[in-house]
User: Fold this.
Amino acid sequence: MRRLRNVKIVATLGPASDDYAMIKALHEAGADVFRLNMSHGGHDEIRERHRIIREIERELDSPIGILADLQGPKLRVGTFAKPEEELVEGQAFRFDLDETKGDNTRVCLPHPEIFKALEDNTTLLVNDGKIRLRVTKHGADFADCVVVAGGAISNRKGVNVPDVVLPLAALSDKDRADLEFVCGLGVDWLALSFVQRAADVEEARALVKGRAAVLSKIEKPSAVTSFEEILAVSDGIMVARGDLGVELPVQNVPPIQKRLVRRCRAAAKPVIVATQMLESMVESPMPTRAEVSDVATAIYEGADAIMLSAESAAGDYPVEAVQTMNNVAIEVEDDPTYREIIEASRVAKRESVADGIVSAAREIAETTDIKAICCFTQSGTTALLTARERPRVPIIALTSLRGTARRLALSWGTHCIMTGELSRFKQAVVNAARAAREAGHAGPDDQIVVVAGVPFNVPGSTNILRVAPCDERLIFAADPE
Assistant:
């Protein structure tokens, strides 16, 4: 299914998008990747959504990526004797391990690992940061605090500890069970929540065993601090701005977003900008102007993908939300300023033969009348390196591996087409020319750039570039043997 844009759209499935007709409508409206949120829905529901996506993929002959998002550890306070208590600025309040129901002076915090990590003046946030407390005294089973910003507190409200690295694994027992379940289903991407350090990602990779690509969600200050190490062991990144905006001052989030997107682009690893992008469309058929500008900013920055959460999972207008993202993307990418920004922020990489080949492909495409860059890829690396260049012409990624095509559904500008296994470069050129014509990217009188690795079917062997006509007769005439 040909898109008229380069940035990809990720749509979360949920109660509002749970049947065949709706999921198909979301894909046709522009969703390239579907997110299965493991925080909501049991395994039977997730299995059914996965089945429907694969059925739609077969019907439309269009590779669709599936991203399973693990819940991660959930830190919550205990319960209160009353339905709600009001904390006021300046008052004292204690967290402890006593399971007695809480009141206006204390409540159970059933996470001893938090108390082990606390320091004097550590900040504790409750209820998405609406309540802020500062630790004045702490021990192995308690934390005395002063309320800095008050508000209503009630049962099971979430707790954030932004100032310290907690001695917690990113994978809970539930996450481990969910990981095995979704890898068994055959999802393409696995998103990790609560990542604090590179070791969290490496632990997950050991469990995944290559069955899915691993994407790290950057949602904690410690992950921002350790970002280079996390990026090095991740296949992709999600800038989860909602949780970042809770644990960090909100004004810090935009520059962090811009910095992380650029680092991912330089590393040729897909990056998703997520959370609250069109949140008003949960209840309204029209977004706010500020939301449209927010989506546009992520696209101008060169993000690989932009994501819908509640808008498509639980909102009243899921298809309209996808259509809005699609329309904004088309308009932004048609703006001459977009191309100026993308090219000004390109990072030159010349560390390998493959780097040089894809860079040359982009330069040739931009200085001559080339209609598309066709790259043959087994692992997806050649396509990712080509996408890093952010060329002005379409990227056609040809692969014999369905899993590779599905994973590349998350990568900027890639149009994935299945092809048979090849043994000769001439046949690859013929297949590329045919694919470019059939996809509507080029006509018989046009030229394309073909990038491949010889010998074929060897990951990481990108070593050849050819400018070729789209007329197969000319290909054979030029190279009859």
User: Anything to note?
Assistant: The chain has a mean pLDDT of 95. The longest strand covers residues 131-139. The two ends are 35 Å apart (CA to CA).
